[in-house]
Automatic annotation (TrEMBL), chains A, B:
UniProt protein name: NUDIX domain-containing protein
Superkingdom as given in the UniProt entry: Bacteria
Gene3D superfamilies associated with the record: Nucleoside Triphosphate Pyrophosphohydrolase (3.90.79.10), Winged helix-like DNA-binding domain superfamily/Winged helix DNA-binding domain (1.10.10.10)
Domain Nudix hydrolase: from-to ranges: 22-154
DNA sequence: AGAATAGTGTCTTTAAGACAATATGGC
DNA sequence: GCCATATTGTCTTAAAGACACTATTCT
């Protein structure tokens, strides 16, 4: 059949003229608690890969989702009850082997959420979900290729931590610089120089003083807030690993 | 129906249980010629968006493509006859508006190819294709959301040029440092300091001398080759824009 | 006063920018 | 020798690391 106008073409067009692979969105939802980077996993209640732990994810809702980001936000909301944190697309993986049902594609997103705000959404929660420290999660024999996906997300997070202000999105509204530095250190897996860290954050204008203080135990600490619109601020240099320490291994 | 084993589940599983969006791979194929960054566009011979210029792209071949990267390589080969350049996934865009046929998703890749090696593949070439300088391409009213896609690819390329050795993948086997610097300058849109550029490349061990020289006209220049395995080397600092120049605007 | 945590002073180091000076080969 | 292009010397600058020192509050 030969069409002579776009209208005519679209009138005759049927979805499913082309065989289309399965498409899903998967989420690596990160938070920090107990001094460790944690990831939220769900235990699958259905085949395939029933009973295995997996990254939360699912299909696009063609009727309700405006775009992929919406799908990711919806998944996040379903699993955590949280609505507005930082979401970033990591990578899209597609091949014939990753799912026993055949050719399938997933777009992987990661989310960074403030642990204090958070509570697992129990409503209509068929599947178990739980937080795992990253290194435990990676030893869990996850469903599908989710170990690889989780590694991709962790790598992206730690690499961006070296040159952006992204970890600030894990913080509550107000926070002390020591708290922020601790978050950086947890993600990076090594310590940072206090003076250098504070200078970097303040001189770049990434954080600003609120005037308020937080008394925890000893000397009260100044409370700061994030001073920029988005979390994609890039520093002109990478953070280094401490110059003496022979790296962990 | 309730299944009790993965085998049983898979035996009854049918594709198309879920409505799945259209999925394509689109390519921003870059090269450098005549002192400008160029992109390869094709003129669509079919509906929708017939006759408009577009990024080359198409559906996954579920029977032959191993994974998405293979699909991208295949598209590149079909359009250019070239087989092994640098390919990188930029982003995956999916929403309801971008294609008149409904919800659709595209994974955008970019390729960097050595213009000297290249010739447009005329074999079985139904669609016209042509190279355009980026700024011309962006004024062309491209099909679908391809202007947005092209912008994403260009942004990724220039941002990675600021802190990686990626542009080296645009070079032939052997090249002079002046040639490489020129490529950087074209992509970035501003000049770079000669000494600083050479120091950066050589001290990081990104390039190595071949011992050979190239006599163009005046003093012969040393020929270098790329010294690393992959093109993802990251420098510890960003290139700056020249400190005096008040930027272009 | 002593402990603990917050915050600063300041010297060193790394790698980039600026710019002038030198080197080489064609004509 | 003159010109153009390649290549190097070396001073300055930006921003990070190291590390010691001061400040504030609690007990």
């Amino acid at each position: 059949m030969h069409y002579t106008s776009e209208q005519e073409y679209l009138a005759h067009y049927q979805k499913r003229d082309y065989d289309s692979p399965l498409f899903t969105v998967d989420m690596a939802i990160f938070s920090i608690s107990k001094g460790q980077l944690q990831v939220l996993l769900i235990q699958r209640s259905n085949f395939p890969e029933k009973d295995k732990w997996a990254l939360p994810g699912g299909f696009v809702d063609l009727n309700h989702d405006q775009d992929l980001m919406t799908t990711a936000h919806r998944k996040l909301l379903e699993k955590t009850g949280i609505h507005t944190p930082y979401l970033e697309q990591v990578e899209t993986i597609g091949n014939r082997q990753r799912d026993p049902r055949g050719w399938s594609i997933t777009s992987l997103y990661f989310a960074l959420i403030d642990f204090q705000k958070f509570q697992i959404e129990e409503t209509a929660q068929i599947e178990h979900s739980a937080w795992f420290p990253i290194h435990e999660a990676l030893q869990l024999e996850l469903a599908f290729d989710h170990q690889k996906l989780l590694n991709l997300a962790v790598d992206r997070l730690s690499s961006k931590t070296r040159y952006t202000a992204l970890p600030a999105s894990l913080m509550p509204e107000r926070f002390t610089l020591t708290e922020l530095q601790t978050i950086y250190e947890i993600i990076l897996g090594h310590s940072l120089e206090k003076k250098a860290f504070r200078r970097r954050m303040q001189e770049a204008g990434v954080v600003e003083e609120t005037g308020q203080h937080k008394i925890v135990g000893k000397r009260p600490a100044q409370l700061f807030r994030y001073a920029l619109d988005d979390f994609n601020f890039t520093f002109p240099r990478m953070l280094e690993t401490p110059r003496n320490s022979n790296e962990d291994e």
